[in-house]
Design brief:
33% helix, 7-stranded mixed sheet, single chain, alpha+beta
Length: 524
């Protein structure tokens, strides 16, 4: 559950099925539907399956989820493909291959992903300190340059649909990075990508190529001293050991690229053009959807982060350190042309400026009250009043010690059990309220909400499909609980879990919520 130490679901559940007694379920394979004399009068919507990395362009994913049904009168929708673990190294390249193979219909990945796959067309968008403001991105993405870049993905067997602007990523460290010398020899995590690694090494730092979960653990123990990310990310993780951002060093934007399986688009028939127009509109509005950076800076400061400035002289020195990287990129004629075009389009546009005085005036962050439970959401849900009448609705808690959770996750038979247990131990609170639920990891404050329904003695909880509501890594849109429930006094037990194939978040929750009883919070 805990975002700072996300669960590695696929790696742990083989051992779990051997120890928890979960029953697999599902329809029998090989069933063939009977032919129909005529097509149905009201065919079901076509659901395009989208693979993406959580946190890259969550607002755009939600916009697509809204825009495609609206543009096609509900005939085309988007489902999130849950088989891609955002915490796995190289996940973006696997998403691209999944689209090329026809396993999924759409993929949304960072522009950084393509160089490793042999496509250089997006390199100029993420070259160090070339696009260092929202306005610079706006000028470039409003030109015909993105269309020229998108054509470059065709050799991969995918169709390029849109380039989406994103927040500026800056260095965040355990001490202020004021000068080039401050980078010398420090361990610096950058998201998996060749240009990122080249750039970090050009600063004299030691680039760390690791999964996000390994990054989190190593920042916590001090073996990674710095990383690159956005102000929004810093605001959510201001309690980390590394929490000082140098705000006048805009390293590169978090630019995303939307690709598609061409056959899946063709199969849409007359709806294809409406879908493409809706996608273009979502891409055009990406910058308008972005949070104000000064407001994010204030939020980060209030949460306990710090802001620093390198100053004009140090910025110029760091830009000179990046010149060998830009020279290497210019060895490719297409990239050189794109860099020249960007220089022309952004001439006169200043780098983004953040007022760091906001941190000096920020109030100390409020301490969360562990006795309070999150508001799970207004309005009735699919469970209706029956759940309340049956005595199910309420807030329940279970407490996990690290050693006990590691044993429940497989112990010595599962090499990842200790790491997963450290990230997910502590108090969990499950709130059920009229068809809405929230699962809260109290130590981190991470919230995992969704909806639920009851059918007799069975409780089925389904995670939200809205990325902005989800703070729990893997599991977006998946069934989170499918179990028999019983309330006796103030104790809730969940048994007879149905864990389908392939393994999913459901199996993880079967351990977290199905091993020990949950006690009602506030009971006398």
């Amino acid at each position: 559950m805990h975002t700072n130490q996300p669960a590695r679901i696929g790696a742990i559940l083989t051992a779990l099925l051997l120890t928890t007694g979960c029953a697999a379920s599902g329809s029998a394979p090989g069933a063939v539907p009977s032919p129909s004399a005529a097509p149905p009068a009201d065919p079901s919507p076509v659901a395009l399956r989208l693979g993406f990395v959580a946190g890259l362009a969550d607002a755009e994913v939600e916009a697509l989820q809204d825009a495609l049904p609206a543009a096609t009168d509900g005939r085309v929708t988007i489902d999130v493909a849950s088989e891609f673990d955002s915490q796995a190294l190289g996940v973006e390249q696997r998403i691209v291959r999944g689209v090329a193979d026809g396993a999924i219909d759409l993929g949304l990945v960072g522009a950084r992903a393509f160089r490793e796959l042999g496509v250089r067309d997006f390199d100029a968008l993420i070259a160090p300190m070339v696009l260092d403001s929202v306005e610079a991105q706006r000028a470039v993405l409003a030109s015909d340059l993105p269309d020229a870049m998108l054509a470059g993905v065709e050799p991969l067997g995918v169709e390029g649909l849109a380039v989406l602007a994103g927040p500026i990523r800056r260095p965040i460290a355990d001490a202020p990075l004021h000068t080039l010398a401050d980078f010398d020899g420090i361990s610096f995590y950058s998201w998996h990508g060749d240009i990122n690694a080249m750039s970090i090494e050009a600063l004299g730092a030691v680039n760390v190529d690791a999964s996000p979960s390994e990054r989190n653990a190593r920042i916590a123990d001090g073996s990674i001293r710095a990383y690159e990310n956005s102000l929004a990310f810093l605001a959510r993780n201001a309690d980390w050991r590394a929490r000082t951002m140098t705000v006048d060093l805009g390293l590169w934007p978090s630019t995303a690229v939307l690709i598609a399986d061409g056959d899946a688009l063709e199969a849409l028939g007359e709806d294809r053009e409406a879908v493409l127009r809706a996608i273009a509109a979502v891409a055009d509005d990406a910058l308008d959807r972005a949070d104000d950076e000064q407001a994010l800076a204030a939020e980060a400061c209030s949460a306990g982060a710090s802001l620093a400035l390198a100053g004009d002289d140090a910025v110029r020195e760091i830009e000179r350190a990046f010149e060998p990287v830009l020279g290497a990129l210019r060895a490719d004629a297409v990239v050189a042309d794109h860099l020249d075009a960007i220089a022309t389009l952004t001439d006169g546009i200043e780098a983004a400026r953040i007022d760091i005085a906001t941190c000096e005036d920020a109030a100390a962050p409020a301490t969360p009250d562990p006795a309070s439970s999150p508001e799970p959401g207004a309005g009735p849900g699919s469970a209706g009043p029956d759940a309340a009448a049956a005595g199910l609705d309420g807030t329940y808690a279970v407490e996990w010690e690290v050693a006990d959770l590691a044993a429940a996750l497989g112990g010595d038979d599962n090499p990842e059990s200790a790491e997963v247990a450290r990230g997910n131990a502590g108090e969990l609170r499950l709130t059920l309220d009229r068809g809405r639920y929230d699962l809260l990891h109290v130590p981190s404050g991470d919230s995992c909400p969704g909806t639920y329904a009851i059918d007799g003695d069975r409780l089925v909880m389904t995670a939200t499909s809205r990325p902005s509501e989800w703070h729990c890594g893997a599991g977006l849109g998946e069934v989170a609980v499918d179990a028999a429930w019983a309330v006796e006094g103030d104790r809730l037990t969940l048994t007879d879990w149905r864990v389908p194939q392939p393994f999913s978040m459901l199996g993880f929750n079967a351990v977290l919520l199905g091993t020990l009883p949950l006690e009602r919070v506030g009971a006398e």
